[in-house]
Amino acid sequence: MVYERFPVVIDGKPFSTIVQTQHEYASAWKATLEKAYGRTHATCRCPGRGARKLAIKRRDDTDGFHLARFAGTGPEHANECRFYAPAPERSGMQGYEVGVVEEGDDGTLRVRLARGLVERPARASTLSGARLPQSTSGTRKRAMTLLGLLCLVWQEARLNIWYPAMEGKRNSGQVHGLLRKTAHRIKAGRLMLHQVLMVSAAPRSKAEAANRTVTQQVSKAGRRALVISPLARFDVSQHDASMSRLPIAGRYGMPYLNLAQEVWESAQKRFPSEVAAWTRGERVMVMAQLNLHPGKAQVQAEVTDLALMHISPRWIPLDSGYESILESTLAGTGRSFEKPLRYDAGECEFFPDFWLLDMKRDFPLEVFGMDTPGYLAQKARKTEWYNRVYGPDGWWSWEAALMPDAGQVSTLPTVR
């Protein structure tokens, strides 16, 4: 899951990946960055498009230096480059107003959340509390929900991208470690996300200890905490409408996650396909927001909001059963692909179900899985848009709703 580090150029001189990473060159590499700091920039030599300028930054907590992409330049880098980031129009990120997500020149993302991370002492119920309005005139959202935040962390961790070389290299420990690492680059209000984030952990692990630390610090500071974890395997005898605890896998180091009935009922209405996937035994991620309160024996946690995300065995997000079939086919045939995430976007924003990454240009994949009048009208609009933007031969679709065998994917485009 480690993306490639390419050679860079500073003051016209190239520096190889070995020079940037090997211990024997550490002193010389640090001297190079220190000399260039505040005077010039580096240029990434990945096979991307654009200037690919990199800022030279000093680390606040050490005397070291590092490279960071300039704000808004992520799309200039190649998909496999560690400095790559997708353009907003490639996903549901296009559905936010300017300012909801801002990228700093140090690589930090600043996010405006609909519900902040500082707990308000007075609240009438678990579902109340100050929220920013989600839209103004038009359809753009002026704040990010919990689902949007889960999508952002997932995308920044690059867990929505798959290459054949990743086969067998994504396990729970790696994924959750990467999510925690990614949280160090995301800021909401005055808080860095890692300060309030707990993730699924194994017993007696560093992750368990980190969860305990977050629990204690957040409960004392009067902040809201966040949890990212897979839901526990569905058990019909335990996981019914009356369950009083959020069932997650790997809850080591976390407090007891009290779940009010109205919170779970709200989630079931907002995420019906994800709940259905969970009951079928498939993997579903949850991001939960918590109010923490010190107790006599242990910290008490109250789930105030949650978002669900259906994911494949490769941890790729999925929006439907048909997408699950297509994702499995893509991986099984050795294709490289990206799943654009919806965030909080409405149906008016156009972006595909998947992007193929092994073609010579952007290549969208679209699944048409319904035949209702409203859906067919949207399908016609999408088809017109794809033909106009990419050309009739520049995109691919699967008419899943019209196929006699819904499990049979249409012939995929040939690698170019």
Describe the protein's architecture and organization.
The chain is α+β, with helices and mostly antiparallel strands and 416 residues long. It has helices spanning 17-21, 26-36, 146-156, 172-183, 206-221, 261-270, 272-279, 321-332, 373-390; strands at 8-10, 13-15, 42-44, 53-58, 65-69, 101-103, 109-111, 161-162, 186-188, 191-192, 197-199, 224-230, 257-259, 284-293, 300-311, 317-318, 337-338, 354-356, 363-367, 396-398. The strands form four sheets. Strands 11, 12, 13, 14, 15 and 16 form a six-stranded mixed β-sheet that branches. It has a five-stranded antiparallel β-sheet with strand order 2-1-3-4-5. Strand 3 and strand 4 form a beta hairpin. The two termini are 24 Å apart. Mean pLDDT is 89; it is low at 122-137. InterPro entries: DUF1173 (IPR009553). It holds the Pfam family DUF1173. This is DUF1173 domain-containing protein. It comes from Pseudomonas vanderleydeniana.
Kindly list the characteristics that best describe this protein.
416 residues, alpha+beta, 25% helix, DUF1173, DUF1173 domain-containing protein
Task: Provide a concise account of the structure shown.
The protein has 416 residues and is of the alpha+beta class. It has three domains: 8-76, no CATH class; 88-311, no CATH class; 359-416, no CATH class. The protein has helices at residues 17-21, 26-36, 146-156, 172-183, 206-221, 261-270, 272-279, 321-332, 373-390; strands at 8-10, 13-15, 42-44, 53-58, 65-69, 101-103, 109-111, 161-162, 186-188, 191-192, 197-199, 224-230, 257-259, 284-293, 300-311, 317-318, 337-338, 354-356, 363-367, 396-398.
